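Note to self: keep these together.
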Amino acid sequence: MIVAMIPIVSIVGMSNSGKTTLVEKLVAELTRRGFRVATIKHNRHGFEIDHEGKDSWRHKQAGAVATVLASPGRIALIEDAAKDYDLIEIRDLYIRNVDIILAEGYKKNPHPKIEVFRAELMRERLCGPGENLIALAGDRPVSSEALWFDWNDAAGLSDLIVERFLSKKG
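Structure:
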């Protein structure tokens, strides 16, 4: 049986450009259209969901390399990572039963990208030619080799995503 690869679209941009807000809007719009969406958020500074004294923390302190927290409505895996996994590795290891993955925080990757750009911040653009930029979402139009969308146009951006990556599913 051949399993279709889940497409990955990266939402990229400088710090405080509005990436998370755009991801929220896209997830809501794509979900409203009946698609199952997963997200991957990269945090290069690390994060902690285990807390000192909790059972899962105690399991880790005892030497567990992986702990699964499970409840009737949610499951989480806390696992030691030997390296900073790329998007394909994360997809292939952990994500199932979704139509698309929206990634946030992976600025340099080979996947199709939507860059969030706030002209009012007066910063340089993140993506240049040849970086697989498919769209620019921002506070006002700027010249680009890709399509431009107002950053509030989740419906228009979702149309693009569906057309390019989900048309066979929807």
